[in-house]
Specification:
The structure is a single chain. The protein contains 6 helices and 2 strands. By secondary structure, the chain is mostly helical.
Amino acid sequence: MVTAALRELEHAGVTERPRTVLADAGYWHTNQIEQLLADGFQVLVPPDSMVREGARPGCEGGMYSFMRRVLSTDLGRELYIKRRHSIEPVFGQFKHNRGIGRFRRRGRAPARSEWRLIAATNNLMKLHNHWIAPATA
């Protein structure tokens, strides 16, 4: 996902490279996390739901314990909570308010074009609402 995001940013002409990778537990993969750290990214991806008190059986030590420690610090918690408040509402907006719960087209290229249309219309609605908002003094 990070490689794809970097490619999209480059294609869009953005030269500044992201410094932090935030994702939910579904993206945890030890080898990929280690590679991101080696590539110089700050990584905040929980290895599990972080609900349990201790480590999952058989997962003590290594990258698993390291990431749990990082996410339990004040800074780690603060950064991860930013993800929850900045990313998740967008998906809630798509699913609940706009009724877009799944892709209508099948295959990678059709789903990608559908996602781009969804994102573009979302951005257009934001611009429209910004332009018609009353000016405040």
